[in-house]
Design goal:
With about 725 residues, this protein is an alpha/beta fold. It contains 28 helices and 21 strands. Helix 10 crosses helix 26, helix 10 crosses helix 27 and helix 12 runs parallel beside helix 13.
Length: about 725
């Protein structure tokens, strides 16, 4: 396929090696096309300038302003002892405020000649504070000269694009580079089918690129942005639609549960009825399993909504139909926990081939990396002979030695912890592609699900089962109000006195060597405010046992313990022998101890919003109400406290995931979807542009259904190739 020559031209041929090198290293721009898709971040109107009054400290800014005053001072210094040192002070104004610029030494001559009062220019530099006044020291600047016949009105109304820049390359230099390559836009091949573009009233691609870089009016910018958003949404959705289409062509064995088999025997044993949500989602899954193409379904559920039960029923249906089911868990603690709870739920149905096992029973085996050789050999044998209908394991399941008799369903728990390769390796163990069910307890806003997991159909469990208790959450400001922290430990003692148990979660284990590499890193102002490393499990457990929780049974749990020790600690906690478990985030997912009612999260500001919500879901799992205390030393007005207040204010995971996404920006969310390649989204905002994404998904599905190979749409193929560089191609291939 012919590539677009003009847009594929390397920048070093067009702009010269020095500029091209900076663009490649600092902005990731390599070709003319890359540069044309490096859009302005915002636009300055000359008459309506960045308010100098609102400049942020320590940030690299670009301002457009007029010189009000310029004075040259001489002074004595060590370098110029006879009063020959020179300092040029220039005051600029934009009507909203004034800002001081300073130039020293030989650097004063050029600005002294050029920055005369009344001159307008763009200035770029880092804002610093000197004598309590904001200033830019040695800023780069570009004089703005109106054309001779340009009226003051047109000059003041012109829109100046400001590009995402770096200290090495100012915005206007990027602007000039864009000017150089702008004629090439005429050769940009339009990826949108004409019917789609015309039907939605979108401007052609060359026009959109011209208007985003050289707008005459604000309407130009709007037209360009809405067109370019469509490109991004549509090309990404076509990639995902093709992926779904290819999957739908694969053969799979239809798995239908037998009427009087394992599944119905299990349902008869359940001491409760399924929620409406569980019944609805189970039906969606059973319908998928009954088809001769592999199911690809994402099951999202609030913490504690009963996803494991839904997944177990799907696994039993497959075993009923003569197949085997494998569940992949991200940690040993979680795999052991799942194994324990599934065996408990199934009772004699999990004792296939054993005395006392029910007639329809099967075997449920556990496979983890730390199992003893004999147990492991037996588990592998049970899988290859088909004795074991269900296996639960960690990455150990993926190893070459593991062979299945007839793998029919793969359930992946906590998808975001697994690479696509791992998911794929397990799928490759079926004689035909097995059905796939991916579960996550991190609620994902609908649009993110459509972009990140767009190759999966989505089911949502948003109802909590009856008997689950509400969780009260409070922020404990330890620095402002130390007595609140003392009260928190009293609350833990009260819960224990009432026969319950508690978790204390810390960000760190505490036996790490101090990493010299990390020590040298520059700290943010918030880090500076703390001046201490995050609290650690081993230290906190020690302080609590000797102090506020003295006399209680306190144990620790963290990822570096031997697996047998971890399991023993979890068993003692589950059996109620331990009052307080001090742990890292190893308890974040899947740990289920209904008697644990309180959780204290130390240094809560060090965790993400979704992570806090996950952790909190470990309490309130029984009939007694749950309590979650978020301890922080962050100041009240800061960003970190706002985040914690948001978590304390709602139990709605979807609402929190929106907040989380708004704070982290889309790039991070899509980062995992795009396997480390830089985010392909430049103007599309995953949260705000929900409508465009949903419509683009429908359009993409229609286009791919009509022409899977896109033979009639060469422009779209070119855009896909650009989006799916090797790395992403692999990602989507393996999804």
């Amino acid at each position: 396929m012919e590539l677009v020559p003009a847009l594929e031209e390397p920048l070093k041929k067009v702009l010269g090696p020095a500029t091209a090198k900076v663009m490649a290293e600092h902005l990731g721009l390599h070709t003319v096309g890359d540069l044309l898709h490096h859009y302005p971040r915002r636009y300055e109107e000359r008459g309506q300038l960045t308010h100098l009054a609102d400049l942020p400290m320590d940030e690299h800014v670009t301002v457009v302003a007029m010189v009000a005053d310029a004075r040259l001072h001489t002074f004595a210094s060590t370098k110029a002892p006879r009063g020959k040192g020179q300092r040029l002070e220039v005051t600029i104004t934009d009507g909203s405020g004034r800002l001081q610029l300073v130039f020293f030494g030989n650097g004063v001559h050029k600005p002294h000649k050029e920055l005369l009062p009344g001159t307008r220019a763009m200035f770029a530099g880092k804002v610093s504070l000197f004598n309590r006044r904001l200033q830019l020291a040695h800023p780069a600047y570009e004089l703005l000269r109106g054309d001779a016949d340009e009226t003051v009105e047109t000059w003041a109304g012109a829109l100046i694009p400001l590009y995402p820049a770096t200290a090495k390359l100012e915005s206007w230099k990027i602007g000039k580079a864009v000017q150089t390559v702008l004629p090439s836009v005429q050769e940009a091949i339009d990826p949108l089918p004409d019917t789609l573009r015309e039907g939605r009233g979108l401007v052609p691609l060359p026009e959109a690129l011209l208007k985003i870089h050289r707008p005459h009016t604000k309407a130009d910018i709007e037209e360009a942005r809405s067109r370019l958003k469509w490109d991004e949404a549509f090309v990404l959705q076509v990639a995902l639609a093709r992926r779904r289409h290819a999957d739908a062509q694969l053969p799979a064995v239809a798995r239908r549960p037998s009427p009087a088999g394992l599944l119905s025997a299990f349902d008869d044993r359940l001491p409760f009825t399924l929620t409406e949500g569980q019944q609805k989602v189970s039906k969606e899954i059973f319908d998928d399993l009954a088809t001769e193409h592999p199911m690809h379904r994402l099951l999202q559920g609030e913490v504690g909504s009963g996803k494991t039960l839904v997944a177990l029923r799907a696994m039993l249906a497959v075993v009923d139909a003569g197949g085997q089911a494998a569940m992949l868990a991200p940690t040993e603690v979680l795999a052991q926990q799942h194994h324990r709870s599934i065996v408990e739920m199934m009772g004699e149905l999990a004792e296939g081939g054993m005395l006392g096992g029910a007639e329809q029973a099967t075997k449920v085996v556990l496979l983890t990396g730390s199992m003893g050789a004999a147990a492991r050999r037996q588990a592998l044998l049970d899988l290859v002979t088909g004795e074991a209908g269900i296996v639960i394991g960690t990455h150990a399941l993926i190893e070459d030695k593991v062979q299945f008799h007839d793998l029919g369903l793969v359930v992946v728990d906590e998808q975001h912890r697994f690479g696509v390769e791992q998911r794929d390796a397990l799928r490759g163990k079926g004689k035909q592609p097995p059905h796939l069910l991916v579960m996550t307890a991190t609620p994902i806003p609908r649009t993110v699900a459509m972009t990140v997991f767009g190759d999966l159909e989505t089911s949502v469990l948003d109802q909590l089962p009856a008997g689950r208790s509400p969780i009260a959450s409070h922020v404990v400001p330890a620095a402002d109000k130390p007595h609140f922290l003392a009260r928190a430990w009293e609350r833990v003692r009260e819960e224990v006195a009432n026969g319950h148990q508690a978790y204390v979660v810390c960000p760190r284990i505490g036996d790490e060597e101090d990493d010299p590499k990390k020590a040298g890193k520059k700290k943010s102002p918030e880090d500076e405010a703390e001046k201490r490393p995050p609290l650690a499990v081993l230290d906190v457990a020690d302080q609590l046992s000797k102090g506020p929780l003295g006399g209680l049974e306190v144990e620790v749990l963290h990822g570096r313990m031997h697996p047998d020790d971890k399991d023993a600690v979890m068993r003692r906690f589950a059996a109620g022998e331990t009052d307080v478990l001090v742990a890292t985030t190893v308890i974040e997912v899947g740990v289920n101890v209904p008697n644990a009612t309180a959780m204290v999260i130390m240094d809560a500001d060090r965790f993400g919003v979704s992570q806090l919500h996950q952790l909190r879901g470990r309490v309130g799992r029984g009939s007694a109400p749950g309590l979650c205390l978020l301890v922080t030393e962050m100041p009240e007005a800061g960003e970190a406290r706002r985040r914690l207040d948001a978590v304390a204010s709602t139990l709605d995971g979807f609402e929190l995931s929106r907040i989380d996404l708004e704070q982290r920006r889309e790039g991070d969310v899509l980062g995992q979807a795009q396997s480390g390649a830089r985010s392909s989204l430049r103007v599309l905002a995953v949260i705000e542009d929900e409508e465009i994404i949903a419509e683009a998904r429908q359009e993409a599905a229609a286009v791919v259904a009509a022409d899977p190979e896109l033979t009639a749409l060469p422009g779209l193929r070119t855009a896909l190739d650009a989006l799916l560089d090797d790395e992403r191609e692999q990602y989507l291939e393996k999804g």
